């Protein structure tokens, strides 16, 4: 009797092992779920990359526009021989227009004309600023150029192109534009906090050695020559920018 029961148990155990073996073999050979698992793993990475592109691409375009805005402001200002306050407002408007289709509200612009006195010294002739970039003090000393090179070296290069190789020629100057832009992502999925973007551009005056400002539009009452200026004054533009200038 015991022998028969043991035999039955043996057969049952053998059948169970066989069933488990067949089930395990089917699981090992079943690849129907592999594709789903692989897709889940790859899709999460692709989704992260996609979200990054959605936010990084606009940020990069804004950064490019910030650089173009600074270049535009300096370039337009450098084309003047003398500027009225309305001209300066137009320069600010041109710099803002470059930011389109993005808002120019987070943008700050500082525009400055730096001149040399002919003795290796550079000073602020005039400077306009608003927001995060306030105007520099008129007649304040300047020790470096936007490139970080000495002012004397920079202005020597100017004179070499302007006719003659005189170093630090009197009243030679450059126009400096600085732009700061506080960028906030519209989605905030990857870029979660605001980013401050900045750019600097500088141009040499096109038609004169310096850009006179502010001019009232009457030729007989032109702005004071930089090296003849002894005092500082200021004026507020219609757009809210404050300009400090030497007179």
Task: Give a quick rundown of the structure.
The protein has 247 residues and is α+β, with helices and mostly antiparallel strands.
Structural summary, described in words:
The protein has 247 residues and is α+β, with helices and mostly antiparallel strands. It has one domain. The chain has helices spanning 2-29, 34-78, 85-97, 151-162; strands at 107-116, 122-129, 141-142, 173-183, 195-203, 232-236, 242-246. Strands 1, 2, 3, 4, 5, 6 and 7 form a seven-stranded antiparallel β-sheet that branches. Strand 1 and strand 2 form a beta hairpin. Helix 2 runs antiparallel to helix 3 (85-97). The longest helix has 45 residues, at 34-78. The termini are far apart.
Explain the layout of strands and helices.
Layout: H1 2-29, H2 34-78, H3 85-97, E1 107-116, E2 122-129, E3 141-142, H4 151-162, E4 173-183, E5 195-203, E6 232-236, E7 242-246
Antiparallel strand pairs: 1-2, 1-4, 2-3, 2-7, 4-5, 6-7
Helix pairs in contact: 2-3
Mean pLDDT, all residues:
79
Shape: elongated
Write down the secondary-structure element order. HHHEEEHEEEE
Distance between the termini: 125 Å
Q: Low-confidence runs (pLDDT<50, min 5 residues)? A: 157-161
Helical amount among residues, as a percent range?
25-40%
Q: Helix/strand-derived class?
A: alpha+beta
Q: Let me know the largest β-sheet.
A: 7 strands, antiparallel
Work out the count of structural domains. Answer: 1
How many helical elements? 4
β content, as a range? 15-25%
Radius of gyration: 35 Å
The beta-strand count equals 7
């Amino acid at each position: 009797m015991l022998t028969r029961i043991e035999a039955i148990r043996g057969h049952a155990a053998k059948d169970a092992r066989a069933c488990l073996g067949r089930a395990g073999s089917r699981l090992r050979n079943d690849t129907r779920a592999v594709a789903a698992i692989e897709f889940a793993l790859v899709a999460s990475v692709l989704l992260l990359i996609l979200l990054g592109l959605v936010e990084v691409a606009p940020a990069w375009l804004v950064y490019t526009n910030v650089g173009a805005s600074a270049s535009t402001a300096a370039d337009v200002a450098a084309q003047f021989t003398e500027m009225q306050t309305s001209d300066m407002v137009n320069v600010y408007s041109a710099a803002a227009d470059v930011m389109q289709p993005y808002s120019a509200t987070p943008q700050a612009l500082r525009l400055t004309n730096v001149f040399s006195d002919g003795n290796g010294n550079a000073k602020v002739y005039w400077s306009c600023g608003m927001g995060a970039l306030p105007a520099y003090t008129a007649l304040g000393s300047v020790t470096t150029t936007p490139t970080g090179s000495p002012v004397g070296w920079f202005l020597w290069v100017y004179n070499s192109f302007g006719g003659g190789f005189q170093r630090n020629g009197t009243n030679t100057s450059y126009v400096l534009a600085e732009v700061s832009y506080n960028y906030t992502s519209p989605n905030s999925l990857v870029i979660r906090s605001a980013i401050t973007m900045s750019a600097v551009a500088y141009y040499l005056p096109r038609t004169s050695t310096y850009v006179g400002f502010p001019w009232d539009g009457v030729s007989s009452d032109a702005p004071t020559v930089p090296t003849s200026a002894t005092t500082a004054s200021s004026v507020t533009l219609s757009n809210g920018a404050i300009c400090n200038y030497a007179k």
